[in-house]
Sequence to fold (163 residues):
Amino acid sequence: MTRLLLTLAVLALFLLCLYGMWRGWQRRARRQAEALPAFPSPPADPGVATMETTGVYVGTTIGDDWQDRVAVGDIGHRAEAVLRLTERGVLVDRTGASPLWIPAEDVRGARTARGLAGKVMAADGLLVVRWQLGEQVFDTGFRGDDKDVYEQWVNALNAGGRA
Fold:
């Protein structure tokens, strides 16, 4: 009987922790929805892709805080994705989630990084695109299947989005 009660107590504590995490995510999303500008929708025709790579969308963070993940809508959800660079901007076409569009005029640069949005990898394991929407600066992280293309992406995005 004691073992059963102890098991139920541990299970209740586990469920309480899950509920607390879910509530925290919901509160963060609500707070960010009030403070952040609306994310741009992809255009009907984003243009011809000059560069494309597959991998995983890691997340988008606010400014220089590599752990302050954006939770608005489904922007905070990791997903397999195809990253496309066009003359009009960067399209993160995510599987099972809405696409993320970064207009070319909003791109502020790109770099490789070790971590973003709670995801930590080996050195230069992530491609990070810095962009600005209104007054707010964002970093969007992508873990490519082929990390050898990161240098091309960084050069193209730092040169104003032209490949």
Notes: The two ends are 68 Å apart (CA to CA).
